[in-house]
Amino acid sequence: MTIKSVAHVCIKTTDLDATRDFYCGALGMTKLFDFMRKALRQHLVERGYTPREIMMGADNSYQFWMKDPNGMDLEFHEYTDKSSQITGQAVEVNW
To answer: Which of 47, 54, 56, 86 has its CA 20 to 30 Å from the CA of residue 41?
Structure first.
């Protein structure tokens, strides 16, 4: 079986090297970039892309969205100390 595309992935790890080896080495995926704080959005704007504004999500994580050159929706997150992904708290949404 070959993985041809991935729609959405969030991975929390305490061992980045082992995780990278599993996904890139064992599964054959390719790491494309590092998400370094919220400077990524500004970098994309400087390259001519049109990401939406950064907002605080219901999960207490900063996030923004944009479309890639193929029209695929991308969602970027930056966790905070209050993020549900860190605290394990339930997220209540009204959509």
So the answer is: 86
pTM above 0.70, yes or no: no
Question: For the domain that residue 62 is a member of, what is the CATH number?
Answer: 3.10.180.10
Closest residue by Cα to residue 59 from 81, 28, 37, 74: 81
Contact present, 81 and 66 (Cβ < 8 Å):
no
Domain count, the chain: 1
| pLDDT digit string, tens, across residues 34-52 | 655 678 899 899 999 999 9
What value does the mean pLDDT of the chain take?
A: 84
Task: List the domain range (segments joined by +) for residue 57.
Answer: 33-87
